[in-house]
Specification:
144 residues; alpha+beta; Thiol Ester Dehydrase, Chain A; 5-stranded antiparallel sheet; two-stranded antiparallel sheet
């Protein structure tokens, strides 16, 4: 998993100053882009200079409590599923300690050929990056 510290920006709030529902997807995108950049695989390398893209085919979010502009946050990014041509990223928006949960989002991407739009297998370099943010498997000794 990857931890992205940030704060809620005014642009992601509604007229009352609380998180506006699309704002959670902005937080998710920021976390993903920052993760990729820190891995030396910024979007310019993964998308602009490559023959494939990974558009979103599903997005959903749940909100647990109101969140005001300026609130310090932590976004936890995990790759919860990796298939042949698609992958699912999960985002958990909490306070910096991880104690107070504000929202969760789940976004599914499919890998496509940029020229034809046809699905293609996840490239090895993308699969390797996704594997680094997979949740740890439960220990064999857990649960009794």
């Amino acid at each position: 998993m990857y931890l992205y510290p940030t704060q809620l920006k005014l642009r992601d709030t509604d007229a009352t100053g609380f998180l506006y529902y699309p704002g959670v997807f902005n937080l998710a995108q920021e976390a993903l882009e920052t993760f990729l950049t820190q891995q030396g695989q910024g979007l310019d390398k993964l998308l602009d200079a490559s023959p494939y893209g990974w558009p979103v085919v599903h997005a959903e979010a749940d909100f647990d409590r109101p969140l005001r502009a300026g609130t310090p946050l932590q976004v936890t990014l995990c790759c919860t599923e990796i298939g042949q041509t698609s992958f699912q990223l999960s985002y958990h928006v909490t306070d910096p300690s991880g104690e107070i949960r504000y929202a969760n989002a789940r976004i599914v991407h499919v890998v496509v050929d940029r020229r034809t739009g046809n699905k293609q297998s996840i490239p090895d370099n993308v699969r390797a990056l996704l594997e680094t943010i997979r949740p740890a498997a439960p220990s064999q000794n857990e649960g009794g």
